[in-house]
Amino acid sequence: MSTLTIATAKEVFEILREDLVAVEQELGRDAASSVSTITEIAEYLREGGGKRIRPSLLLLAARQLGYAGQGAIRLGAVVEMLHTATLVHDDIIDGADTRRGRPSANTTWGNEKCVLAGDWLYMQAFKVALEERNLKVLDLLIGLTQQMVEGELLQIQKLGKSVSEAEYYDLIFRKTACLFSVSMRLGAVLAGAAEDEETRLATFGRAVGLAFQIVDDVLDLTATEEVLGKPVASDLREGKATLAVIHASDHGTAADRKAIRRVLDDRSFENVSRQQILEILIHNGSVEYAMAAADRYAEQSRKALAPLPDSEYKRALLWVTDFVIAREK
What we know:
Helix content is 75%, strand content 1%. It starts with 8 loop residues before the first helix and ends with a helix. The protein has one domain (9-326): Farnesyl Diphosphate Synthase. The radius of gyration is 20 Å and the shape is globular. The protein contains 16 helices and 2 strands. The chain is mostly helical. The chain has a two-stranded antiparallel sheet with strand order 1-2.
């Protein structure tokens, strides 16, 4: 039985430090275009930072399986570019004014330029991925991009409407967990892993991604704007019913359902306050219900890693799971 301990944040930083510096340098090179507006927008987005979880997962998966080549740096930049492109398009669709505590790109450059910059980032990601000369890598990235676009379209169709838990999980897989899963799978492909190893790492990524999005949705309802770096309860205000809200609608009183329905219809807290919604979620145990679901996926991710040989990279992956569950923004 393994007695492997989970890495600390400092240890994970040290394990990934050189690789992530290399990914940032790759992103800087890849963001350059002969059209200055594209370069400006791409650089602004890169400087906005972010947790770089997706490239970190790819790097850890590749290193866990013994791969040490430049491809992990290259594809780490690719998955981050794809993620950034989705954020640009999300902000335009949602009419967001802020992202990570700064003005969103569309408030500075306008929707038209940012749509095209997002499209350019998608294509640039594929151009960089082509350097691997690996059809399986391209197949994974094409399938991923289709899933993410389908997820965005499904979400638009569901705005302001009642959503079942099954529909919610399908949506967050497409929008978030699929990219986590593919990031792990790409690391395995680079290492020439056996199919069972690749599947195991993909399962880990999927479970961590689902937990990540559930926690993200809870924080949107419960955190402060100062911590989040964007307006709180923006999901509900935009007509998106997330897990805690779905649970409260399914298990609350008729008055609870009516209040939630009013916010989804109004797309504002003008008639029902955010505090009233929070109280509904609290007295129905809906926040705890959502966090318990995130904890279950976290446990699934740990089980997926269990058969892998013990290593510093496995310890770091276990830390990622704990970080996703315990984070505050």
